[in-house]
Specification:
Elements: E1 4-9, E2 12-17, H1 28-43, E3 49-54, E4 58-60, H2 65-68, H3 73-91, E5 97-101, E6 104-106, H4 108-115, E7 118-122, E8 126-128, H5 142-150, H6 152-161, E9 164-166, H7 167-172, E10 178-180, H8 185-197, H9 201-214, H10 219-234, H11 237-247
């Protein structure tokens, strides 16, 4: 049975990490499978939102230490680059990505969740970057994305101690957007996806680009990105549909994605 399952549900691409015996620990082969599933989402223009989740006890419990332990410095760079490239591909995916974190999201699992646009956590979820306890640093964006999400002070505390935190603490510090009962996690993820899907998808995707590009630059450059996106959207049929429905006081908009 595949360790990464991909299925399309309406306009949602659902990626399920399915290697419970290893708690979805990241190996080179497993990362390749995840990237292949992400590629399926990317090429299907009928997918408007992607959800990534895990099975049983883990989202991703970290790296496969048995694979990492023998790595030399050169091997570690190649291994880390694979994880970094995967996370960048998720972060820059055309559509919004929701991480539905069902269990352990540690090390590389926390890094992958942070590469998603939005994180919803089960009450049983656990987060952390425990790498310093293994004699290494995070290698796939943990030192960069965590401070951007929760602030430098809290991020440094978590990174320096390797401490694991629960879902409520992750919510308190802004690492996750919402916490649900375990049995309600996927319903909450799909409900959020449905809210996004109802909107004009060119506008949603342009907004994602603006946020991702703008957050890395100065405000003037960021506003320039926004103005370009604003112009693109104003030339679409969806703009005419959305504004026309507003003026006619119609709730149904029926966007056409062009």
């Amino acid at each position: 049975m595949s360790t990464v399952l991909y299925e399309k549900k309406g306009h949602v691409g659902l990626i399920t990490l399915n290697n419970p015996k290893k708690l979805n620990a990241l190996s080179a082969a497993f990362m390749t499978e995840i990237e292949n599933a992400v590629a399926e989402v990317e090429k299907d223009t009928d997918v408007y939102v992607c959800i990534i989740t895990g099975v049983e006890k883990a989202f991703i419990a970290g790296a496969d230490i048995s694979e990492m332990c023998p790595l030399t410095a050169a091997g570690a760079i190649a291994w880390g680059k694979q994880g970094t490239d995967l996370n960048l591909r998720i972060e820059n995916l055309r559509v919004p990505v929701i991480a539905a974190v069902n269990g352990f999201a540690l090390g590389g699992g926390c890094e992958l969740a942070m590469a998603c646009d939005i994180r919803i956590a089960s009450e049983k979820a656990k987060f952390g970057q425990p790498e310093v306890g293994l004699g290494i640093t995070p290698g796939a964006g943990g030192t960069q994305r965590l401070p951007r999400l929760v602030g430098a002070g809290i991020a440094k505390e978590l990174l320096y101690t390797g401490r694991m935190i629960n879902a409520q603490e992750a919510y308190r510090i802004g690492l996750v957007n919402k916490v649900t009962a375990p049995e309600e996690l996927m319903d909450a993820a799909f409900a959020l996806a449905d809210e996004i899907i109802k909107n004009a998808q060119i506008a949603v995707q342009q907004t994602k680009r603006c946020v991702n590009r703008g957050i890395e630059t100065d405000i003037v450059t960021g506003i320039d990105f926004e103005q370009q996106a604003f112009a693109v959207c104003n030339a679409t049929e969806d703009k005419q549909i959305g504004m026309g429905a507003f003026l006619r006081k119609e709730k149904e908009k029926n966007f056409v994605y062009r």
